[in-house]
């Protein structure tokens, strides 16, 4: 008969810096953290719209012209594009559209959605600012 | 034929002797066609018989020989030594699993998850064999085909930080296999598997790291299966609200 004693297993913890182990993990972490950044941008924009609703449109536009807001918006735009590329590509992978015998590729959904994003963004800018 | 020398640094952990793991270095002569598993076999046969690791088929089919090679989860039988030429190769047990000894990890948690998702065709009523097989078209097969290529090597779990942080997470391979049966036209067990896949530690725990699909040696995309399962779950939930009597 052999020795049936069970020895303790080695349990390893995930280190706080696990996401530095590869570029892929790091990019994931960037996406997670920039979500907070985009959430802050949303709050700032809601505040701007509240100025329009409670004071005047000129006040809202002046608020948008603030250099700090412009800088923050540009940074938020870069992060938003990173999120958009991730999710639009995934959308194409999850739900390809069947055309005849072939299916659409994820990059086609990415391009189509980015074009739609540009159109919708232009309409929003026209409605809020240029009009 | 000339032979190069590979320097292999292997994690050693013998629970009956060691309180913590350490690295042991070996110099292994190798030919161009040798893989990391060959080096481990050489060490065991010629240098140190106490080195412990799992392996079986030596051809990327059985899924037994997974390890973290230079920090990345890989099959040792599919990692050529010449790809690491000029540098030390670090071989560690797969991350995120408890280590039993040296490179051997405890697979119990994964095995329980595998059984939990009921990886077999469930029928509401079995028909006798004489009535023939359950037929399926090529298009129906295509819906789940890639997810049936999983060899249960667990590399996707070793690559998943979500599983590393929360071992209750159902995880990539088990979800991909559950989705494989959910999409199988012959299966009638959706109502049994859906609650398992959509429970607290099911698909919604996944936050799309995506490394599971990167490391899969068989080209399975578990990340895609998880996201597809999320869409199916969300669609079913909306249908059940809008059409409570016949939404599913």
Description:
The complex is a heterodimer of chains A (131) and B (248). Chain A has 131 residues and is mainly alpha-helical. Chain A has a single domain (20-130), classed as 3 helical TM bundles of succinate and fumarate reductases (Up-down Bundle), CATH 1.20.1300. Chain A has four helices and two strands; from the N terminus they run αααββα. In chain A, helix 1 (23-54) packs antiparallel against helix 2 (57-65), helix 1 packs across helix 3 (67-94) and helix 3 runs antiparallel to helix 4 (106-130). By secondary structure, chain B is an alpha+beta fold. Chain B has two domains: 5-105, Beta-grasp domain (Ubiquitin-like (UB roll), Roll); 108-242, Orthogonal Bundle (Fumarate Reductase Iron-sulfur Protein, Chain B, domain 2). Chain B contains nine helices and seven strands. In chain B, helix 6 runs antiparallel to helix 7 (190-197). The mean pLDDT of chain B is 94. The A-B interface holds A 7-12, 14, 18-19, 21-22, 24-25, 28, 32, 86, 90, 93-95 and B 13, 15-16, 20-21, 71-72, 95-96, 98-100, 106, 161, 164-165, 207-211, 214, 221, 224, 227-228, 231.
Classified in CATH, the superfamily of the largest domain in chain B is Alpha-helical ferredoxin
Mean model confidence by pLDDT of chain B: 94
Q: How many strands, what sense, and barrel or not for the largest sheet of chain B? A: 5 strands, mixed
Strand pairing plus helix content of chain B: what structural class? alpha+beta
Helices and strands in order, then pairings?
The complex is a heterodimer of chains A (about 130) and B (about 250).
Chain A: H1 23-54, H2 57-65, H3 67-94, E1 98-99, E2 102-103, H4 106-130
Chain B: E1 4-12, E2 22-30, H1 36-47, E3 66-69, E4 72-75, E5 89-92, E6 99-101, E7 104-105, H2 108-116, H3 138-142, H4 155-159, H5 161-165, H6 172-182, H7 190-197, H8 211-215, H9 222-242
Parallel strand pairs in B: 1-5
Antiparallel strand pairs in B: 1-2, 3-4, 3-5, 6-7
Helix pairs in contact in B: 6-7, 6-9
């Amino acid at each position: 008969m052999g020795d049936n004693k069970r020895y303790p297993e080695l349990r390893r913890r995930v280190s706080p810096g696990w996401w530095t182990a590869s570029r892929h993990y790091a990019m994931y972490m960037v996406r997670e953290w920039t979500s907070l950044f985009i959430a802050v941008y949303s709050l700032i924009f809601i505040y701007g719209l509240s100025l329009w609703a409670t004071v005047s449109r000129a006040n809202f536009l002046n608020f948008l012209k603030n250099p700090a807001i412009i800088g923050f918006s540009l940074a938020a735009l870069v992060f938003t594009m990173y999120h958009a590329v991730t999710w639009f590509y995934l959308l194409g992978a999850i739900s390809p559209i069947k055309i005849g015998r072939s299916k659409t590729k994820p990059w086609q959904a990415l391009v189509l959605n980015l074009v739609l994003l540009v159109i919708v963004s232009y309409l929003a800018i026209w409605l809020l600012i240029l009009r | 034929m000339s032979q190069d020398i590979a320097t292999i640094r292997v994690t050693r952990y013998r629970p009956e002797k060691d309180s913590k793991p350490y690295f042991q270095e070996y110099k292994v002569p190798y030919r161009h066609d040798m893989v990391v598993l060959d080096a481990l076999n050489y060490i065991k046969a010629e240098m140190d018989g106490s080195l412990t690791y799992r392996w079986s088929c030596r051809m990327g089919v059985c899924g037994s020989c997974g390890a973290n090679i230079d920090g990345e989860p890989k099959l040792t039988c599919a990692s050529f030594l010449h790809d690491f030429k000029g540098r030390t190769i670090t071989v560690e047990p797969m991350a995120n699993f408890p280590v039993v000894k040296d490179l051997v990890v405890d697979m119990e948690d994964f095995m329980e998850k595998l059984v939990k998702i009921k990886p077999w065709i469930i029928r509401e009523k079995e028909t006798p064999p004489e009535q023939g097989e359950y037929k399926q078209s090529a298009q129906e097969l295509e819906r789940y085909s890639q997810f049936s290529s999983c060899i249960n090597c667990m590399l996707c779990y070793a690559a998943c930080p979500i599983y590393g942080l929360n071992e209750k997470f159902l995880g990539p391979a088990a979800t991909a296999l559950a989705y494989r049966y959910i999409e199988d036209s012959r299966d009638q067990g959706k109502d049994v598997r859906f609650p398992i896949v959509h429970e607290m530690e099911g698909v919604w725990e996944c936050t799309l790291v995506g490394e599971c699909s990167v490391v899969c040696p068989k080209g399975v995309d578990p990340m895609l299966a998880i996201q597809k399962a999320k869409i199916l779950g969300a669609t079913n939930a909306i249908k059940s609200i809008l059409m409570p009597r016949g939404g599913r």
